């Protein structure tokens, strides 16, 4: 479909090389004749500037240096309608040359007869469209809706719709498509670029949408707030890869009862601002803030936490480096059951990092799952005793002073009994040394054979018998300085026994279940040419 020339600002397009862009400016450029398009490319690496040429700003870009000027050209493609893309993907196909059918053109008064190839298959495909429940038109260049009613007559039963990486210019166009699906529940719009909403949307367009994905759309928090008020049934939202630096924009419009918000890979850094901005999301239960820039979790200074109902929190790969941050999490999220925190300095480079799992379990009494691994009752008990022993060895003073540094001190003492107030002498047989075991880890190039014995120097790991295999695997990777990119199918862990080796492959069991004890020998293979 070819829009009139010149095309309006906001039009989306693609070129034969596969690059997508948005027209941000139409007009003259100083010092050159004719009309130019100022464009922002979806892939910023293709850009040359941010809309400024020879000191004059013609347009602005969402991403720095993602812009350039191009001439109007027939090589620019402005996309197709929804049904055209649907037919191209789900109906069009190569037909057998022998499968022919004579068709009389109705407008010719039976004067024109043509030969159609595979027409029966097309009819069958069209019938199949009415039964479609899931439609994926990812990267099919959808830019326009169709005549009202056409989409609904073609595929009325769609529940899930993926329109990622297309040429949709606005929320009005999206609504013109989704209003045709009365049963739509899942809407995926990743890698599109929408203009800011400037008019009301029909409520029926998103009436039953429960899940919405807006990853890599560069949508702002303010724009999201304007759109989401038209989605009363919405419960799950993904807003990753959007370069969000703040959620501080306020809105007078109500929000749906969203219980799952995912901000993975953004640039959020202010915990207080993020939490306060989510105060209106009273049903929020799962919050993903992985791979952002959060450096500190401050004490709760409000009367009640704005995210007090959150039960599942992901903080992996941020910049948290102080264990008091976890103490404060219990204030902000008093119902926290699941936490992901791998990849922070306090679990990777802090001097206490090797015992990070035990400390985290002891510091957050409501926790049931840590970094994807369930916490058993025995592991909790061992971790809390471990933590009590650590405090008693490293801190002196009265209970009030200890509680200021370790808020769980009193509760854990009431639960397990108070450790001796006298600092243990070196070599004392205290609870800490009783709990820990030393495991010798040897790295080998190939799968260990039955008669193989350890060679080279062992890497010694101190851990608890209650440590799950999944967690122990991470401890081994860290001790051997293996990158996190090493996946399980090329990273194998073997326990050396008198009659051979046992592969530690069931992550749900702990070390004690396999009979691993103090002095056990573990062999590790990494089946990759890169390691």
Attribute tags:
elongated; 531 residues; five-stranded mixed beta sheet; 22% helix; alpha/beta; eleven-stranded mixed beta sheet; 14 helices
Give a quick account of the main beta sheet: strands, pairing sense, barrel closure: 11 strands, mixed
Low-confidence stretches: 94-119, 421-429
Relative strand content: 15-25%
Instruction: Work out the helicity level.
Output: 10-25%
Radius of gyration: 30 Å
Query: How would the global form be characterised?
Result: elongated
The count of β-strands is 26
End-to-end Cα distance, whole Å, is 51 Å
- Please state how the strands of the largest beta sheet are arranged side by side: 10-12-13-14-15-16-17-18-19-20-21
User: What is the SS-derived class?
Assistant: alpha/beta
Average of per-residue pLDDT values: 85
Could you explain the architecture of this structure?
By secondary structure, the chain is of the alpha/beta class. Helices cover 22% and strands 19% of the residues. It contains 14 helices and 26 strands. It has helices at 82-90, 119-129, 150-154, 171-178, 221-228, 271-277, 324-332, 345-348, 356-363, 377-394, 399-405, 409-416, 431-435, 469-479; strands spanning 12-14, 20-27, 36-41, 52-53, 56-57, 67-70, 80-81, 100-104, 113-117, 134-136, 142-144, 160-162, 186-188, 211-213, 236-238, 260-262, 286-288, 312-314, 338-340, 369-370, 373-374, 437-444, 459-463, 491-497, 500-503, 521-526. The strands form six sheets. Strands 10-12-13-14-15-16-17-18-19-20-21 form an eleven-stranded mixed sheet, with helices on one face. A five-stranded mixed sheet has the order 23-22-26-24-25. A hairpin with an 8-residue loop joins strand 2 (20-27) and strand 3. It is elongated and about 80 Å long. The relative contact order is 0.05.
